[in-house]
Design goal:
mainly beta, ten-stranded antiparallel sheet, 20 strands
Length: 266
């Protein structure tokens, strides 16, 4: 999975985003949580050669001309064109746009020895720029004559700016709400209906289901179609949330953790 996909993926998590305490007005979900970024389970495979850029296991198996111009791709909620440019022998720039508006931008830099790929994404569509840096190790080299990015890569470390990592949850007997410091927010009643995520360019709708006081399931839709289901379970005495995320768009499943932020953090 490329970092742009990770960025989109992480945005989707943000916008998707119960003891008897619920009856008492206090839920173990209540508070601010920090996402521990998940790493892709499968390696990404790139090929940049003869003016074409191909990627498998990243941006929906993308194939576009690498000529520095916007190229039409299968439309997603967050982009409909990609602009791929070979900056030099060790650097590639990828710009995603939706309706002509720049969405995430990604710079891929390969180390001089060719064995490390550092991907830096900047998402400037928010009130504040969100950055994600992912480091990858080479698994296989690309064919002779191809760009240094060509080959198979496995991510081993990812760092995300704080403004794109935290989310505040509030759960009551009637519904579940989430809000990020960047402006995305929703409140979905436990009535089976879909509710809009505010400030989301993907126009995601969310429904919420209370499984028990410590388990909530969120279903996200776009254009009436289910795109993801996220089940969140509070664990370790309310200190963490275990998340199972199933993407219907990519037919994938991923698990990750969230940690409760301590009170009084500066």
């Amino acid at each position: 999975m490329s970092t742009v996909a990770t960025a989109t993926f992480m945005k989707t998590l943000i916008v998707l985003l119960l003891l008897s305490p619920v009856a008492l007005g206090q839920s173990p979900f209540d508070g601010t949580w920090v996402t521990i970024p998940p790493l892709p389970q499968k390696p990404a495979v790139y090929l940049l050669a003869k003016g074409m850029f191909r990627c498998s296991g990243c941006m929906a198996d993308t194939e576009v001309r690498a000529d520095g111009y916007d190229q039409k791709v299968t439309e997603t909620a967050y982009w409909d064109t990609l602009n791929v440019q070979m900056v030099d022998a060790h650097t590639v720039e990828i710009i995603a746009k939706k309706a002509g508006k720049t969405m995430p931008t990604e710079v891929d830099a390969i180390s001089p020895d060719g064995n490390t790929l550092i991907q830096l994404v900047k998402d400037t569509t928010e009130a504040e720029t969100v950055t994600i840096e992912t480091r990858n190790r080479r698994i296989e080299k690309g064919p002779d004559g191809s760009h240094a990015i060509s080959g198979s890569w496995r991510a081993y470390q990812t760092n995300r700016s704080r403004n794109g990592s935290i989310i505040k949850y509030k759960c009551t007997a009637d519904g579940f709400g989430a809000e990020t410091p960047l402006g995305e927010r929703f409140y979905a009643k436990f009535d089976g209906n879909d509710y809009p995520v505010e400030d989301d360019p993907g126009r995601t709708m969310v429904s919420a289901k209370l499984i028990d006081p410590e388990i909530v399931e969120l279903t996200s839709k776009r254009n009436g179609e289910v795109v993801a289901i996220k089940r969140m379970s509070v664990e370790h005495g309310g200190k963490s949330i275990h998340v199972i995320f199933r993407s219907k768009e990519g037919n994938t499943m991923m698990t990750f953790e969230m940690q409760k932020e301590r009170e009084g953090r500066p």
